[in-house]
Design brief:
single chain
Length: 172
């Protein structure tokens, strides 16, 4: 993750693969999946969306084969799959994955994934021109960020709401 954040994508991919191999040897399926998902994020960030989707499919196979019902892992796989679809231009497919995450809300260890999903789904819906539905999810995101006192999230949600209003022709 440090290399990903620093923009050292080649190193991040190598480290994620090494991490996967170490956790495979240790038979730790949870960390195997996390390592694969990190690769999905790296591929997203370097705009290799098909590779990101492929890696997430592999992570899903490992999840299905080895993991107990772990909502956090499932939401992570679906969320990373969705961002790859969205930025590759398949926002409708991204929304399908985001909608799968929402029923997991009460099973997740924190509300972080749901808050992120509200924002991301709102953005995908905005790209699809479904502005009323996009606004609904961005409002949910805003409310959650206000409750969490997360200023960056609040600012992002307000910016998105401004974009939706602009697209609706509400310039006030």
């Amino acid at each position: 993750m440090d290399n990903l954040i620093a923009g050292s994508y080649d190193i991040a991919l190598v480290q994620a693969q090494k991490s996967y191999q170490a956790f495979e040897l240790a038979q730790d399926s949870t960390m195997m999946i996390r390592s694969m998902a990190r690769r999905g994020i790296v591929f997203h960030d370097i705009e290799e969306y098909e590779e990101g989707i492929r890696v997430c499919r592999e992570a899903q196979k490992v999840f299905n084969q080895y993991s107990k019902a772990n909502a956090d892992l499932q939401a992570m796989i679906w969320g990373i799959t969705a961002i790859n679809y969205d930025d590759k231009g398949a926002s409708d497919k991204a929304v399908e994955f985001y909608k799968k995450i929402l029923p997991l809300e009460n099973q997740l260890s924190s509300d972080r994934e749901i808050i992120r999903t509200y924002n991301n789904m709102g953005n995908s819906l905005m790209k699809l021109g479904k502005l009323d539905e996009a606004e609904k999810y961005i409002q949910l995101n805003l409310k959650a960020n206000i409750e969490a006192e997360f200023d960056y999230g609040i600012a992002t949600a307000k910016t998105n709401l401004g974009t939706i209003a602009y697209k609706k022709g509400d310039f006030s």
